[in-house]
Amino acid sequence: MPTLNPYLSFRDTARAAMSFYRDVFGGDLVVSTFADFPGMADPPEAELLMHAQLTTPQGFVLMASDTPARMDYTPPAGVSVSISGDDEAQLQQFWEALADGGTVVMPFDTPPWGGRFGMLTDRFGIDWMVAYSPVTP
């Protein structure tokens, strides 16, 4: 069965970002540096991440890498990572952790359509949307 996984790009903060996301969501983080694949980056960038994958207890798979200086890099724009579900306490916990050091665009509050919804940009410049939709009987 195919899966759809967010793949985030960073200039040189992928390791810190992915460690932060592991702290937020839990799970197993596997990383490969450019040093693991000789000739893929200049020596000063050897310890940057060529690939990182976080697999969480909730079944999320989040991937990321650093962009070497020799390659163009544009910070992510026009895309948000969305987390939704019916566990309000867990979503509130994710919201608070992601917002720490970031910028809240729309507070995690009750929107006109019900439930709870919020938008933020985390400390690494990644946009997130969090949506709580209660289970209706």
UniProtKB/TrEMBL annotation:
Pfam families recorded: Glyoxalase
Annotated ranges, domain Glyoxalase/fosfomycin resistance/dioxygenase: 4-130
Residues annotated as signal peptide: none
Name of the featured protein: PhnB protein
